[in-house]
Hints:
Blueprint lengths: L1 E2 L4 E2 L3 E3 L3 E3 L4 E4 L17 E3 L3 E3 L4 E3 L3 E2 L4 E2 L4 E2 L4 E2 L4 E2 L4 E2 L4 E2 L4 E2 L2 E2 L4 E2 L4 E2 L2 E3 L18 E2 L4 E2 L4 E3 L3 E2 L4 E2 L4 E2 L7 E4 L3 E4 L6 H9 L3
Parallel strand pairs: 1-4, 2-5, 3-6, 4-7, 5-8, 6-9, 7-10, 8-11, 9-12, 10-13, 11-14, 12-15, 13-16, 14-17, 15-18, 16-19, 17-20, 18-21, 19-22, 20-23, 21-24, 22-25, 23-26, 25-27
Antiparallel strand pairs: 27-28
Amino acid sequence: MSVDPTAKIYERVRFLGEAVISEFAIVGKPSRPSLGNLKTEPEELETIIGDKVYVGPYSMIEAGATIGAGTLIEDRTTVEEKVTIGTGCIVGRGGRIEASAIIDNSSVIRGFVAERSKIGKDCRVFGMLLHAYRQPGVPWDEQVEQAPVVDNFAVIAFGSLVIGNVRIGANAYVASGAIVTKNVPKNHIATGTNNFTPIAKWSGRLGFNLAKTKKA
């Protein structure tokens, strides 16, 4: 167990084995107080850090999060309250995972993951998973919107936006710059705004690699 002396470990953090907590990392921090209330309530949520987890410098893991064994949390990342991250994942430098999101094993996250998003196993999320924000008149802390779901082996490339209550099918690829507001069928490539092409009909190397190496 290695905890840098500048790191902050809150109460109710449970380590399930060896871990590395780097300089100025924060683990188990209670979430912010609600609007109009400057006092943070005592935090009863347990934060669980699995065996052989690495938490990089200046990263923050909030209370109630569960980090699976062998996962790497790189520098300056944020993992909010009640997030569940599976085993063998990587949260890349600067990635942000909002409250109550669920990420399955062996996925790589380096983008933005909205609250309550669900990400399958062996996914790559470098773009942004967002809420549609269709109720701007509702107070911020009362907003509850459905979030994107990303099925196994899917890729969300850099610069892409997946917005609202949509599902990205297994082995789908959302290309850089794409905007998605509709369900993407499995084994399809999304380009532009809601343009979906079956991998089998994609003539580029990208489609060949996906069809060759992934089994949804």
